[in-house]
Amino acid sequence: MTTYVALLRAVNVGGTGKLSMATLKALCGDAGFTRVETYIASGNVVLDSRARPTRVKAALEARLYAHFGKAAGVIVRTAAEMMAVREANPFAEAEPNRTYAFFLDVAPPRDALNYVKGRSDETIALGKREIFVHYPSGMGRSKLRIPAAAAGTARNMNTVAKLAEIAAKR
């Protein structure tokens, strides 16, 4: 059995729509996942499955499509991968609530930073399958656009750390 962290994209933030964590937990159970635990109402779920990550992603996306009637993206990481993201944070000295990891399905292109728009005081670094951004003035004020991160989903480093902790305790 493998412990996974599933990160839903655009849930409870607009876009795809509202989804209670109780409903998310039930959808995960219906998909056959066990030991399902949600964390804050922004589409974070820790679950166990014998399936490979691609199957976990596909099963959860299918359940979400059936629920919403339209596609909702999901990014999946193992417990060890989530811990590695926490450890790889190149801005570990910065405020964790102002530092984000944009989770992607694949590695960001090496030239991804060449296409960034609206940059002011943000610092950006590429990770394995993440793009890290420190927003000294806050994400809400930023005009930053990262085309390579468009299909991903962002979590601040407080959330990354908590999800890594929850997953590691299983």
Give an account of the 3D structure.
There is one protein chain. With about 170 residues, the chain is of the alpha+beta class. It has 2 domains: about 1-80, Alpha-Beta Plaits (2-Layer Sandwich), CATH 3.30.70; about 80-170, Alpha-Beta Plaits (2-Layer Sandwich), CATH 3.30.70. The chain is built from 4 helices and 8 strands, in the order βαββαβαββββα. It has helices at about 20-30, 55-70, 80-90, 155-170, and strands spanning about 1-10, 35-40, 45-50, 75-80, 100-105, 125, 130-135, 155. It has a 4-stranded antiparallel sheet, sandwiched between helices. The longest helix has 16 residues, at about 55-70. It starts with a strand and ends with a helix.
Short description:
This protein is an alpha+beta fold. The protein contains four helices and eight strands.
Please supply descriptive tags for the structure shown above.
170 residues; alpha+beta; Alpha-Beta Plaits; 2 domains; four-stranded antiparallel sheet; 4 helices
Beta-strand fraction estimate: 15-25%
Separation, N- and C-terminal Cα atoms = 11 Å
Main structural class: alpha+beta
The tally of structural domains comes to 2
Low-confidence stretches: none
Elements, N to C (H/E): EHEEHEHEEEEH
